[in-house]
Design brief:
The chain is an alpha/beta fold. The protein contains 14 helices and ten strands. It has a seven-stranded parallel beta sheet with strand order 1-10-9-6-2-3-5. It has a three-stranded antiparallel beta sheet with strand order 4-8-7. The protein binds fructose -6-phosphate.
């Protein structure tokens, strides 16, 4: 019964979503999945191939992997990594480079062979980039493809640096960053004007080939883009919506990032509700906004046609609800 209810509740969601109480618990679970993969591969004498992301989102995952290495002996000797992206141009030893980020948050603290670490090269000449990108794709293929790809999501809906307008079959390439992405990065660079306008990123097609894709998001700031990515129509305007086409994707969210999903934001559309004063007020205001009508003009039919029949029946007539 509980499972059936959940199916109904999630009927607007077009890909699997798992919600944790907070980012910490979510991060521990993702780290655990990565550790399990690494150990399974070790038992078979195989490499584990990880696609990694930078940014604020995966930091606690990397911290837990470091802890598992230091305290529980998890070895990364059989691990090969490919990072999603790097700013262009970018010197690897610059404070804002993704090389520095990965070294500081993960690689410097584990026993990975640095020859097994791959991050797009921000120092190339423009004309060297296409060949580099092709070789990056080939290298991923030559080690058997990505076993797990970790993703964050930008407020533009980008995954990697695949900004709005990116094609679903795009490969590793040089791209131009969206203005919002550069604004979000401004703090790291001491002002937006210092943020590079370009980056080298794996494509959506590259990400798609991973055997498992885990997109993580925390924080209320991500709630609206998460709603679009999970419930919206597939469109190049929100590149993360392409993930709806994958059979191997899972979104791992904290409650704040999930708060825009229908089951939390407008729960009356997907289930019977306990009509507290707060929920009633929220629903009536939502209905008035949706229909662009003053609250006192909302009718019985308006309630019934917009998933609020339960409220009208339990606490109606609706005129009284509106007045209240
Ligand atoms: C980083 C990357 C980006 C970030 C995204 C979210 O390698 O590819 O797509 O995952 O911009 O960034 P944070 O985690 O800082 O919110």
């Amino acid at each position: 019964m509980a499972r059936l209810n959940l199916l109904e509740e999630t009927r607007f969601e077009k890909l699997p979503v798992t919600i944790f109480k907070n980012p910490k618990e979510a991060s521990l679970s993702v780290a655990q999945r990565i550790a399990t993969l690494i150990k399974e591969k070790q038992q078979q004498n195989l490499n584990a191939v990880l696609g990694l992301a930078t940014g604020a989102t995966p930091i606690a995952v990397y911290a837990e992997l470091v802890r598992l290495h230091k305290e529980e002996g998890l070895s990364f000797k059989n691990v090969i990594t490919f990072n999603l992206d790097e700013y262009y141009p970018m010197q690897p030893n610059a404070a804002q480079s993704y090389v520095t980020f990965m070294n500081e948050n993960l690689f410097n603290h584990i026993d990975i062979d640095k020859n097994n670490v791959h991050i797009p090269d921000g120092t190339l000449n423009l004309e060297e980039i296409p060949a580099f990108c092709l070789a990056y794709e080939r290298k991923i293929e030559s080690v058997g493809g990505l076993d797990i790809q970790i993703l964050g999501i930008g407020r533009t809906g980008h995954i990697g640096f695949n900004e709005p307008g990116s094609a679903p079959n795009s490969g590793t390439r040089l791209v131009t960053l969206d203005d919002l992405t550069r604004r979000d990065a401004a703090r790291d660079f001491g002002g937006k004007s210092n943020v590079p306008t370009k980056a080298i990123t794996m494509g959506i097609g590259t990400i798609f080939k991973a055997k498992e894709i885990i997109l993580m998001a925390w924080n209320r700031k991500k709630a609206s883009i998460i709603k679009k990515a999970v419930e919206g129509e597939i469109s190049s305007e929100v590149p993360a919506t392409y993930l709806q086409l994958s059979d191997n994707v899972e979104f791992i969210l904290d409650q704040d990032a999930a708060s825009g999903l229908t089951r939390f934001n407008t729960p009356w559309l997907v289930k019977d509700c306990v009509w507290t004063e707060e929920l009633t007020r929220k629903a009536v205001i939502w209905l008035a906004n949706k229909l662009n009508k003053p609250i006192l003009k909302l009718t019985e039919d308006d309630f019934n046609n917009n998933g609020m029949a339960q409220l009208a029946t339990e606490q109606g007539p609706v005129y009284n609800i509106n007045i209240h």
